[in-house]
Specification:
By secondary structure, the chain is of the alpha/beta class. 34% of the residues lie in helices and 22% in strands. It contains 8 helices and 9 strands. It has helices spanning 9-14, 24-30, 49-60, 78-86, 103-111, 132-141, 161-169, 198-205; strands spanning 37-43, 66-70, 96-99, 118-122, 146-154, 157-158, 172-177, 180-183, 193-195. Strands 1, 2, 3, 4, 5, 6, 7, 8 and 9 form a 9-stranded mixed β-sheet that branches. Strand 4, helix 6 and strand 5 (146-154) form a beta-alpha-beta unit. The chain is globular and about 60 Å long. The relative contact order is 0.21.
Length: 208
Amino acid sequence: MGIKGELTLRNIIESKIPVFDFRGEWLEAFGKPQRSGIWYIYGDSGHGKTSFILKLIKELAKFDKILFVSYEEGSASTPLQEGISRFGLLEANRKVSVCTKKGKELTERLDSRKCPNIVIVDSLDVSDFKRSEQVVELKNRYKNKLFIFTGWAKGREPAKRIGEDVLFMANQKIFIEGYRAISRGRSFGERGYLTVWEKGATDYWEFK
């Protein structure tokens, strides 16, 4: 019998940790990542980050409901409308809610009984999260939720210090480059990346 507040190695091995049971290209890219915690998705402008986020929303909606906090595009913009149509997101209409809530208003939504278990914040750089400690507090307060933050990049690194800190703590790190979503840990598939746009990726990576 173990000591209160401590686990044995067998306890850990036998724990049933909820994961996303991905199939096909998603499994090949990211394996079966955990369904709670922090993900960080970052990349430079023009490499397919927004397109990947929309594809990801469609995929994750197969597993659970999603709150998409759309700071960059807003809740009613032409780019968002076009993306919803292009990626067939209306199939997930009842599973996805979009808002631009911040501060107390966002906290009240997260506290509500009907708040989705997956929360995507696009993006960290224009949110009112200014310190990584705020993200840690969020993770600890809502232990059963998955928070996915997107972020800007300079080259292959996050553009801001808070992005660096969140990348370090994230249990799934995804870098977008040349229309590929590349897993940088902690869950990998056999291929290790997902192609966002085939022609764009072929043209970009052909001479790399």
